[in-house]
Design a protein that fits this description.
This protein is mostly helical and 596 residues long. It has 23 helices and two strands. Strand 1 and strand 2 (453-458) form a beta hairpin.
Length: 596
Amino acid sequence: MTSGDVMEDRLETDSALHQLSERVEGIGKGQARHEDKLHDVRADVVRLSGEVTEVRQEVAGLESAITDTRQVLDTFIEQYGRDREVAKAQAELSRLTTEWHADFAQRKHTRALARGLVHTLTAQAVYRNVVNTATVRACTEERMLLEPTYWLAPATMAVAAKFRNEDERGERARAHACMLDAAKANLFFSLTCSRLGDETEAAAWMDLYLQSLDPGELGQDFFVVLDAIASKELGDKALSYTQQAMARWNRSSIRISSDTYATADMHGGEQWEARLQSLRRRMTKNQYTALRKTCGDQWDTLRHGWELATVPDRTLAYLRRMFPDGPDGVDWPVSEGNHVESALERLINQLEPDEADIREMMRRLERVIEHGGDLEAATRAHESSFGPDTQPVTFMELLDQAVFEPDEAQLGPPARRMALRAIWPSLEHAANRVVTDSRHHLPHHITLSVAGWSSTVPTDPQLLVEPGPLVNDLTSHIKQQTQAQSDAVVRRWPRVCCALGIGGFSGSLVVPFVDGAWQGLFLLLTLGMASWVIWEIWSVPLRKKHVNEQGDRLRNESVATLAKALDQREDFFEEWHEAMKQLTALTLWGGHRNEN
């Protein structure tokens, strides 16, 4: 290569380097410009991020304001709705109050007049000419003119006619009152005659009153009337009529066909069985544990029958506690008439159906106003204001409450004894059925099973069971069982051969050819198999000893369990038989009563 060529190459190289240097410089300047632009972009992003944050804060504040506004609006709408309900209730209550006074204001005066007429002092004032009978007649006739559809108006006319000895006028007034409301009028005349001292007529009216009642829907007034009758405030004849009516209602409640009635001492006890069974004695888990353990599947039937047998005794104890004076009580003096007075006051003040409907609507509206238009709260308060004494009950519910739930019935002892006498034949029949069911659950023999051994023993406590032979038989059975288990303990040669094979293979063919952790592992396996072989060969006496020790413990525990079960068997079935015999005592307790 000549010097010219070399010079030319150098020039080309310098030119290329110069161009490359210019490009690098251009790239550097471009990068500087891009860095400036990137810096500006970053500044814009930071500014934009701040603005977004501010916007988010403003949006959150707006959402909070919207939520508060919505709550205020909802509260306003809700309060507006309540205020509207209150306004509606006030307007309706005002209208009903006006209607009430327009339609029923006169009844208040009629009730006041009736309350005064039936008072004993009024009768004395009339008979002593302190009060002019013409005035009495004028007052009652005015009430009749103002309230022609209200049964109490002609009823007061009948009382006034009695004061004036106007029999024909009194009969017409009584007939008109009975036409309007027979049950209330009959009761009113019965209670009035009783207060005026005419027990014969009071009994006659009471008989008519009882015939007009529906035993499937007795009002709470009947409870007060029953107290008055049972206390003999209306006389013995009224008491007799009531007892006959209650017996008739009881027979009708146990009807076995549409046209045939069953006698209470042969049928009808089924309805009281559940009540009597609820009084039975419950067996606890700590009672007769050994007998329970040895009886197995028989125990549930035995326990149920034993509990049923306790019904007569528990029933008798309950009745003696509730009726300490017996089913007939003692001959207390006749009450002074407090029950008759209460019954009369309750009857006179009782609202008529049309009055009761408007009064109920007015009370509902008052609850709406009291609760500021909250309809749900007003409904709950209105429903809770109705006590249990406002609902009618059936005759059978009355009897059940009188005998078994005295706090619910709120009857006096004489009335509760009347209820007891009314249902006694059915109760006695129910007790007989329960004892029969208990006797059905009582087997002649039971099987006691302990540790695979079993024996049948009688349930009659009079038949003695000697424990000696049974214990000896159980002991022999467990000894034979233990001996068989001990004889079954032998050397298990297949396991010995298997252990020898595994140990020999591991010790002779594996251990010499491996090192490290694997050698230690297979060496342990070889030693384990050798130990197993030694245990299988020399452990037979130890295992036999263990089996014999277990057999001894089982024998001792089983013998103790059997002996205890035999003792409990005698007590268990003796209590069962004695409990069933209490049926006679229950029958005698209820049998000493006056038959009417």
